[in-house]
Amino acid sequence: xxxxxxxxxxxxxxxxxxxxxxxxxxxxxxxxxxxxxxxxxxxxxxxxxxxxxxxxxxxxxxxxxxxxxxxxxxxxxxxxxxxxxxxxxxxxxxxxxxxxxxxxxxxxxxxxxxxxxxxxxxxxxxxxxxxxxxxxxxxxxxxxxxxxxxxxxxxxxxxxxxxxxxxxxxxxxxxxxxxxxxxxxxxxxxxxxxxxxxxxxxxxxxxxxxxxxxxxxxxxxxxx
Amino acid sequence: xxxxxxxxxxxxxxxxxxxxxxxxxxxxxxxxxxxxxxxxxxxxxxxxxxxxxxxxxxxxxxxxxxxxxxxxxxxxxxxxxxxxxxxxxxxxxxxxxxxxxxxxxxxxxxxxxxxxxxxxxxxxxxxxxxxxxxxxxxxxxxxxxxxxxxxxxxxxxxxxxxxxxxxxxxxxxxxxxxxxxxxxxxxxxxxxxxxxxxxxxxxxxxxxxxxxxxxxxxxxxxxxxxxxxxxxxxxxxxxxxxxxxxxxxxxxxxxxxxxxxxxxxxxxxxxxxxxxxxxxxxxxxxxxxxxxxxxxxxxxxxxxxxxxxxxxxxxxxxxxxxxxxxxxxxxxxxxxxxxxxxxxxxxxxxxxxxxxxxxxxxxxxxxxxxxxxxxxxxxxxxxxxxxxxxxxxxxxxxxxxxxxx
Lengths: 224, 405
Known about the structure:
heterodimer, A: Rossmann fold, six-stranded mixed beta sheet, B: 2 domains, two-stranded antiparallel sheet, 16 helices, 12 strands, about 20% strand
């Protein structure tokens, strides 16, 4: 069953008044619980595609269907709500809130959903234990290593049980051992919780472990 | 949790936040000092006027205030005394004879208001006795007179010197008497000191040949705020032959000034507050621009604009409130010694004394001053954060996440 599908997705940027076509008509469909890696060289349009799939940016042309519903016409407010309820994000630079502890970072998106404090706390602690990072609960990002921060970022991304997690180069800032552990963790979440993962990466190790690989070149998918 | 996040964001850059808190604190102190000075000045003028001669309520024969001629005396003082003795709001009262006359010394003469008072009672009503700086206050000796320092200088007289007071009598003849200067007073009002002299009630009645008659009853209540109540009660007790006025009726200019001040207080506070706003805008803008990346993340994970907006406003509110609370505490502490010892403004004494203010100003803060500041400044701080908050929600999440400082 499809979770997300694009139709002739195009994105044109203006670079000093010169139009640059970042995506040239992408057609793809990703099924629920899939683990997909979008690979390609720098500038191929991986991040642009991820931003469009994550409802962070609007396409110049084309449509994106999430569970068969087109979200390209939604307002900014509706898109925020959509992201909050359906999506999880993992960033290359972890991007945890520096003034909040690991536990609070994880709780934050639940707070946005209006989940009561007690339940937030319990669910966050359970997830920290599941990810074997419960000892980080009271630490702030500045007190954690890159790998630890990214594990907390994974926890933050999945704590609301999203249908789709988008990860933009999640292992790029990590050494290969830590990156490998992180991939193990996300594969486990994919298998156990049936969360759909879409990665963008040009890391060979990530590409090798992909269950489904999409190769992007010059704004076009060249290999499924 | 949003408040927790706002609080922690404030302490990210301690130095900047402390500078903003400090600027709010200084602004609040400036507001409170201006309030206290204005308050103190106007109430000092009012209370000085009340305690010099106006008192809380005055009773005259109808028409006396418009035409202060000697014939406008109260025919039956006993009737008024009865009404005053039977009113619970009355603390004390003094009978006065008031007329305009001429006071002459060996070297000069000048027009004056002659007050005939009962020395034993008048000191409960006015501050003339305690304002005597040379000699002594009136005794029961009929030939005593006390005059103001400025008048003494003009007439070139001192304690023990003789002066002659002359005034028209009701029958049109001129009454005159010789008095010996018993005391010289200096009140907070130099104008009052130039124009008013005090003799005993009996000698004034003799001078004007109006035995047993008076022109004025000066009444003090237990609380000056009850003056209008007392006026109204006396109006209902006494007939229309009497003119009964409270200090508000007698000092309309001072009362208008007080009212204008109370109304302008908000505007003064607002002007200082507006100056504060720019500090808040600057600080909050810096804070927002330092966190562009973070706002991008918050937007990505689904934080709606209204919550982001609220978070920035909260940060400004917390900073503004902290500065206001510390400012109000320090403003209160600074005001304690100033209100007790006063501020010596003797270098302006000429102009201040002509305003009946005296040369020492006692700043005074009211609860309303604190409440208004406590309500206004945090609100102004929040207003100052609107533009930075607006900038934050206008960020594009994609560009914001990629933003590198």
